[in-house]
Write a structure and sequence with these properties.
The complex is a heterodimer of chains A (112) and B (111).
Chain A lengths: L4 E3 L2 E4 L5 E6 L6 E7 L6 E7 L2 E4 L8 E4 L6 E5 L8 E8 L6 E2 L3 E5 L1
Parallel strand pairs in A: 2-11
Antiparallel strand pairs in A: 1-3, 3-8, 4-5, 4-9, 5-6, 7-8, 9-10, 9-11
Chain B lengths: L2 E5 L2 E5 L4 E8 L6 E6 L5 E7 L5 E3 L5 E5 L4 E6 L8 E8 L4 E3 L3 E6 L1
Parallel strand pairs in B: 2-11
Antiparallel strand pairs in B: 1-3, 3-8, 4-5, 4-9, 6-7, 7-8, 9-10, 9-11
Classes of the chains: A mainly beta (112), B mainly beta (111).
Chain lengths: 112, 111
């Protein structure tokens, strides 16, 4: 069974630029999550989707971050414009309903 | 509000020694608790989970954890450390996936 796929693995951008990350969850997993993991900290949930609907986006900085999950499968997370403090690893995870979550390898973003 | 505190950001043990990683939680409802392991440049892998069944939970790679409600703790242990156990470990609280994570403990295993 294929795992959660994320791309790109690494991204370096200048502040005020925009960036997008892509996630392909495990086939059949209805629930998809985006987490932000800043160096030295644990992951923090940004947004949770159930199929193509948003369940929780209370910690998503909506002035600059956006996410979508069209057709309830793949998802993209966008940052526009990026700030230095957005430097982090962005993890995507998926689960069957609210069962065990499976994580992708993450995208490491560096904002300079 | 829910919170997780991992005591000790770095733990170093000798190969073959006991591994003990500490986790305390705060929750207003009966908790679900998880331990994850993260190897460098990898995502998180679930080691074990507590979901209100047996208080002693056995996971993969010889790890286990004991839920102690009176102490609000969920410490992770392994009787004998291997070099391959060197990684970062995260304790998490809440529903699977949508969880509140601790800040992690880096485990170093010395030969």
């Amino acid at each position: 069974e294929a795992g959660v796929a994320q791309s790109p693995r690494y991204k370096i951008i200048e502040k005020r630029q925009s960036v997008a990350f892509w996630c392909n969850p495990i086939s059949g997993h209805a629930t998809l999550y985006w987490y932000q993991q800043i160096l030295g900290q644990g992951p923090k949930l940004l947004i949770q989707f159930q199929n193509n609907g948003v369940v929780d986006d209370s910690q998503l900085p909506k002035d600059r971050f956006s996410a979508e999950r069209l057709k309830g499968v793949d998802s993209t997370l966008k940052i526009q414009p990026a700030k230095l403090e957005d430097s982090a690893v962005y993890l995507c995870a998926s689960s069957l309903d609210l069962g065990e979550a499976f994580f992708g390898q993450g995208t490491r973003l560096t904002v300079v | 509000a829910q919170s997780v505190t991992q005591l000790g950001s770095h733990v170093s043990v000798s190969e073959g020694a006991l591994v003990l990683l500490r986790c305390n939680y705060s929750s207003s409802v009966p908790p679900y608790l998880f331990w994850y392991v993260q190897y460098p440049n990898q995502g998180l892998q679930l080691l074990l989970k507590y979901t209100s069944a047996a208080t002693l939970v056995k996971g993969i790679n010889g790890f286990e954890a004991e839920f102690k409600k009176s102490e609000t703790s969920f410490h992770l242990t392994k009787p004998s450390a291997h070099m391959s156990d060197a990684a970062e470990y995260f304790c998490a609280l809440g529903g699977a996936g949508k969880s509140t994570f601790g800040d992690g403990t880096t485990l170093t295993v010395k030969p």
